[in-house]
Amino acid sequence: MSLVLDPAAQDLLFREARTANTFTDEPVTEEQVQAIYDLVKYGPTAFNQTPLRITLVRSAEARERLVQHMAEGNQPKTAAAPLVAILSADNEFHEELPALFPAFPQAKDVFFSERPARENAAGLNAALQAAYFIVGVRAAGLAAGPMTGFDFEGVRKEFLDDDHTPLMVVNIGKPGPDAWYPRSPRLEYDQVITTV
User: Fold this and answer.
1) Residue 15: CA count within 13 A, CB half-sphere
2) Is 12 exposed, middle or buried (0-12, 13-18, 19+ CB in 10 A)?
């Protein structure tokens, strides 16, 4: 059985897509970011939660502040990328649930009145949304360089607040020279899929 999605789109989104390590200097526009968000906002989450928050780092001053919190090997990539996004989980996402999940507006209080429950849900669902975001960047014809090599607490203090948990930093742009490392192996179907 073949997939319905066109093979070229399959390649763009998955088979040929890899983490980019260099970028051209072509800017990433607000219109491109809006188009990415307008696509990926439809990705499913539990209770239609939308805990992902995206902080776009555009100014030179903000970029300098971010670079100092990146791991040494990630600093040059983040300094040179046309656009950098800090993806975080909003641990107060439940305040939006009555509007986002009108079928059960009480979910806000029934399931998420306690902070630990919110943090667990926000982390899982924001991670799902972060994956959608990366695929959306690829769908826009751009490359993404997601990284977790940074000082999480430093980034939180510098750019966020106590209600937001950093998840990753994503460099975004058109891939530059030698952007790709060789593709690493993947597990085969029978190593991952079990039927019971």
Assistant:
1) 7
2) middle
Dist CA 92 CA 112 (whole Å): 9
Contact 171, 145 (CB under 8 A): yes
pLDDT per residue as tens digits for the range 80-109: 999 999 999 999 999 999 999 999 989 999
pLDDT in tens, 42-77: 999 999 999 999 999 999 999 999 999 999 999 999
b/e sequence 181-196, b meaning 16+ C-beta within 10 Å:
eeeeeeeeeeeeeeee
Bridge partners of residue 122, in order along the sequence = none
- DSSP-derived letter for residue 70 is B
What strands, in cross-sheet order, belong to the sheet with 164-173?
Answer: 52-57, 83-90, 164-173, 143-147
173: left (phi over 0), alpha (psi -120 to 50) or beta: left
Q: Which two tokens stand for residue 130?
A: 């972060």
DSSP strands (E only) in 3-130: 52-57, 83-90
Q: Can you say whether the dihedral through the CA atoms of 13, 19, 25, 31 is positive or negative? A: positive
